[in-house]
Amino acid sequence: MSQSTLEYILANRIQGLDTSAIRKAFELASTLKNPINLSIGQPHFPCPSNIIDAGCRALKDGKTAYTLTGGIPELKSALAEKYKSGNGISYATPERILVTSGISSAFLLLFNALLNEGDECLVVTPHFLMYPAYIKIYGGKMYSIHESFEPEALKEFANRKLKIIIYSSPSNPTGKILSRKQLEALADLAEKTGAYLISDEIYELFDYDKKFISVGSFYDKAITLSGFSKTYSMTGLRLSSILAPEPITKVLTTLQQYTLVCAPSVTQWMGLEALKTDMSSYISDYKEKRDFVFESLRDRYEINKSEGAFYFFIKIKEKDDDFIVRAVKEKELILVPGYIFTESKNYIRISFASEWENLKRGISALAELA
Amino acid sequence: MSQSTLEYILANRIQGLDTSAIRKAFELASTLKNPINLSIGQPHFPCPSNIIDAGCRALKDGKTAYTLTGGIPELKSALAEKYKSGNGISYATPERILVTSGISSAFLLLFNALLNEGDECLVVTPHFLMYPAYIKIYGGKMYSIHESFEPEALKEFANRKLKIIIYSSPSNPTGKILSRKQLEALADLAEKTGAYLISDEIYELFDYDKKFISVGSFYDKAITLSGFSKTYSMTGLRLSSILAPEPITKVLTTLQQYTLVCAPSVTQWMGLEALKTDMSSYISDYKEKRDFVFESLRDRYEINKSEGAFYFFIKIKEKDDDFIVRAVKEKELILVPGYIFTESKNYIRISFASEWENLKRGISALAELA
């Protein structure tokens, strides 16, 4: 039978999912001899050796079987402590926690469990590119509000039947950390509309000016997402957690049993060790890099100082797609186009999760492209 | 704010997902002092040490970052070879292969990508409990046909608009291996109706009488699922692969980018080593256990000789729920009720993936319960 005569009929929900934007940049990049890469969305440092050792120990101890669906009890207890002492979430208990396979799996469970076709969602923008993808997959309707919003600006959504409100703080792609006033306004809106408030805190440790606040510290219906991938440089190991009201955690756990089964067993033991690891020297390094990028580019570009994560979202004068092609051709510089994070076509995202040499080359190339 | 006043409104698609059956057995079991467990759905032997060592090497080599969405090229190439030489699938190429996080993730991607609300599915029954769960989540309609079917029996489905045909062979829960004639009939039906034919071959190596055939060896539109969990005792490490027509593999890869991102990196390197591992002594051990169970129970129960996997599906005279409660109370014996795999309430599933001592105690207890 010839493949070419086959008609592949796919489900409607995934029509139009597209990864071409980032792929295009990577394909272009793969043709370069000596590229400067400022596009990478993960830490440049290796996973700390005590965490690696914990993984080997778990393997040698035979921790290769299914774990409990919701995660190993040791990790859930340690996470409850972390949410309490690290995030000020006094009500955190193991029963409220689900351990899952990375933040993207957390989205999968949450949107799958919570969103019906036609439900309305509010996204703080510029936003992580997966939020609209999930809203699309599950047939929701998306509204957005800019991350610089004043609390009063939320009034226009107060009479909507919102189902989900979601943001990342610190933000991918801007590095913005939402203020307490903004978070309070979002929690109020969630309370008024009955929406689920999902706080994606995967970059929580990358908080250069001690501005980060967990909304869960004052709003007990918050759904708080916490990751290991970025914090401990273990993106490929697939580990994150969800802290939610207990009935939600139960439902998500059931859904996990039918989808992901459990987070990878060995990774869970590594996560337990990770929570004991002091990452402050890594954070200091990134703070220095954040300052360097800001000082180097502030006179050349319209740019807000990143407060967290490891990104700058930079305004450019031409179309983002054209700019990234020009950056590759003229400077062998790899960037991410802004349109995957926002409706504007006049931004690019850079990452300063990089060795100094690559970063310095990249930033001076970028300065010259202005 | 009080939790108890909250109304949690969930998406319709997950209403009624339920794990209470298996949980009930486990809860009962947790009260026992010296239980005999024949309920376990995973191998009792440890993951072979060369595979463990490969995991440690990968960790120490810093393989903790995201991999390519579809899997590391080394593993995809090795899998293509495995599908060719192990399964007789001559057209297997890396481009047709997606590496994902366990078979359940493969189902997640496939049903998500292929099934629209109202689409019809045919399931060979008794069936793995996740098939109906996924059909339910995505709003499909399920038909079933008993695994003992004659090819002519499929005629009644020939004019249906089937979207998915799915089975596991060797079967969980019965150990049945579908014959070549049956597989040909299923492939014909798929061809006639335009359905996707999904062959779940996670137990392929547990083939005690050399009866196993991959439908993909003669049907090039087959979607073949292959796992590492059961074969190499690495259920907690989350690794499997999908071999599909290239356009389908592309779509599933895009969907993976938005959901699972990639299979765990370290596990992928372990998978590469696993494919070089000779498991024949483990399989011989299970064959001996299979024979022992059959000989011990054939005069007490109506029972078909399991041909593969590590299960027997045993007919009982009372209701399965009552029987498993009686087994726990009278014999401290843990079983799985059959109703989660079939419409009949007169079966139980036992697993012989067990040490001899536990197995012998369990089988003699079971014989006494007849």
From TrEMBL, chains A, B:
Domain of life of the organism encoding this protein: Bacteria
TM annotation in the entry: none
GO annotation terms (biological process): amino acid metabolic process
Needed cofactors: pyridoxal 5'-phosphate
Domain (Aminotransferase class I/classII large) ranges: 34-366
EC number: 2.6.1.-
Gene3D superfamilies associated with the record: Type I PLP-dependent aspartate aminotransferase-like (Major domain)
CDD domains cross-referenced by the UniProt entry: AAT_like
Keyword set, alphabetical order: Aminotransferase, Pyridoxal phosphate, Transferase
GO function term, MF aspect, one: pyridoxal phosphate binding
Family to which this protein belongs: Belongs to the class-I pyridoxal-phosphate-dependent aminotransferase family.
Name of the protein in its database record: Aminotransferase, class I/II
Native source species: Leptospira borgpetersenii serovar Hardjo-bovis str. Sponselee
